[in-house]
Amino acid sequence: MVFKAPKRTLGDLDAEAAGALITAAADIALILDAEGVIRDISFQNDALARELEGNKSWSGKRWADTVTPESRAKVDSLLHDAAVGAAPRWRHINQGSPGSEPVPLLFSAIRVGTDRPVVAFGRDLRALSALQQRLVDAQQAVERDYARLRHVEMRYRLLFEMSAEPVLVLDAFTHRITEANPAARRLFGETSHRLVGRGFPEMFEPAGALAVRDLLGGVRASGRADDVRARIGAQALDVQVFASLFRQESTTLLLVRLAGAPGTTVVAAEPAALPPVKSKLLKLIENGPDGFVVTGPDGRILAANAAFLDMAQLATEDQACGEPLERWIGRPGVEMDVLIANLRQRGSVRLFATTVRSEYGATANVEISAVAVMNGDAPCFGFAIRNVGRRLTENRSGRELPRSVEQLTELVGRVALKDLVRETTDVIERLCIEAALELTNDNRASAAEMLGLSRQSLYSKLRRYGLGDLDAENRNDP
Q1: pTM of the model
Q2: If I label 353, which of 78, 318, 405, 443 is the partner at 20 to 30 A Cα–Cα?
Q3: Residue among 45, 8, 3 nearest 25 (CA)
Q4: What pLDDT score was predicted for residue 239?
Q5: 273 strand-pairing partners
């Protein structure tokens, strides 16, 4: 959109007035002849003028010779568009600066008339670049804080679930159960779904229920109270009830612990003892660094060890049991179907490459080895899941291909074609990014533009492939 009647509204402007308008319209303005040679320069930004104090030597030089190498093609494109009268567009140019780093500028060029000079208008991008860098630093700080909070919550969950004593969390006002650990569920003989939502005092005999209600009310009012003795109605067991008050966000909750009263014992029924060697093997699997999951023939989880829960960022095994494994492994409806089909046909699968998705959206590269164990007509499947993300990152940092062509072709028939294509695509994508960074002298803004990516997409892929030092100040990328 241009002025409708510039001659009437602006009148006849002389060269001095036109120069003042051009200077006021941009942080830096260049007057260029038809060959792209700089004939005059003006600055509206004093700080930028001091930064580019060597501009006196630009007069008589081609504009393209004063910018960084990766910006020369953009300068030629701007001058060509101005020469043919195309609509002006803004391009990111890194302008050379004597004795310091290049200055990022946003330029647009226009010819002021037939056989007239070309005027290039520039805007200083250093403030925007600094703001973007602060935003990236803030995002990374938030991610680190979120990871620390998640780990704290995970440790709390593990302690809560592994406690040998029955522990429950109650709403401080309604006294209804909101959470219960496995020991509490075993004590009351209820499942988690049936226990949550019930009134806690109702679990005791009438006299004990009144004492428990008074205890909970006193803790809510004063923040502390003595423990009380009460008898659980269904089991006829005497227990000591301890309660403490805490707040979570805007909710007031009570943490209740049950301990055996003098002369009584609160224990859960012990499972049948395993032979010593089998018991050690079970402990090794449970505490091993690699994830291990057992599923039924339908792919739903029957048991999972702590390493898998950590990969999936789950607090308890109950959150995984009964859920389909494909909820966290690979792409739903694709890779688990391939795995289970191979297990039914061959009985085992080795080093199946895929990914694990956590409850919070994080992904990790893994290798799965699986085996089918026949148990009558209904087999169960065991999956050993190893996180290979760090190993892949170390290989890629050495600029080595993750798999050679021979290794990829050897997997034909053993791994789904989609997986082979995906891995080959990753190799090509990484090589293209490395080539773009080399061509632009590690200028990531120019590399992203060369690849047709946004800067955030390029940063995401750099993190994925372990390329570059993302924690250091990127001097070439505004």
Answers
A1: 0.34
A2: 318
A3: 45
A4: 87
A5: none
> Cβ(325)–Cβ(333) under 8 Å?
no
CATH of domain 163-260: 3.30.450.20
| Residue 454: φ, ψ to 5° | -75, 160
List Cβ<8 Å contacts ≥24 apart for 88-91.
90/123
Fold of 276-386: Beta-Lactamase (3.30.450)
Q: For the structural domain made of 388-478, what CATH number should be given?
A: 1.10.10
Distance CA 183, CA 187 (A): 6
CA dihedral sign of residues 402, 403, 408, 413: negative
The DSSP string of 372-418 is: EE--TTS-EEEEEEEE-HHHHHHHHHTT--SS-HHHHHHTBTTB-HH
> How does pLDDT run across 126-139, given as a tens digit for each residue?
888 788 888 888 88
Instruction: Say if residue 274's pLDDT is above 80.
Output: no
Q: Which two tokens stand for residue 204?
A: 């005791």
Domain locations in the chain as residue ranges: 6-124, 127-159, 163-260, 276-386, 388-478
**In the structure, what pLDDT confidence band is assigned to residue 415 with cuts at 50, 70 and 90?**
low
Please give the pLDDT value at position 293: 92
pLDDT at 461 over 70: yes
Copy the structure tokens of residue 38.
Answer: 């700089």
Q: What is the DSSP letter of 106?
A: E
Whole-angstrom distance, CA of residue 75 vs CA of residue 106: 11
Cα distance between residue 194 and residue 146, in whole Å: 32
Q: CATH classification of 6-124 is 1.25.40.10, yes or no?
A: no
